[in-house]
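Ticket #4471: structure export looks truncated?
Reporter: QA, pipeline team
Priority: medium

Steps to reproduce: submit the single chain below to the structure queue and open the exported record.
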Amino acid sequence: MTEPPGIPELHTPRLRLRRLLETDAPDLHVAYGDADTMRFWDSLPSRDVAETAARIRQSVDANPQWHAAFAVLQRETGRFVGMVNYHWRQPWNRRLAIGWILARPWWRQGFAGEATGALLEHCFTALGTHRAEAHIEPANAASIRLAERLGFRQEGVMRDWLFVADQPRDMVLYALLRPDWSKPA
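Actual output as written to the record:
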């Protein structure tokens, strides 16, 4: 079982991933405050930047043994693109779940795949993960395509997996095993 070395900075050709900070709240609120962006998230959109900051505090206060959130920034400009994370980490089972969200101006540019690929590399190498899961709503076609491009395989539907605004939501379970993972070039 590999212990997390804290939250490192990760790099891709176009992106820099660093620990999410509470000062990122105005930038993350572009995604968290947008109802269309949040329609497949596990909570309603934030009402204001203060609520986004409170959500960030929950991530920042979490022990990286179990959860870590990374701000996704453009390397050249430093502009905030979105956030990726791992959560529900079970080191004894070498398993965790991952998530991603981008602000709408950055959709369809390949940033989600690039950032998530870097996160997967960190999880599979530094954290000793064997199984990475993604829980995706059945109607979230963009995230399903991304998961499949990254090598995730659909394993089944989890009926009424979570409740948002007191309404049940199904999730499709996708998983990627380390032996099936291809390290980004």
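Status: closed, not a bug. The export was complete when the record was re-opened. Leaving a note from the reviewer for reference: Strands lie at 10-11, 15-19, 68-74, 80-90, 95-102, 131-136, 153-164, 167-177.
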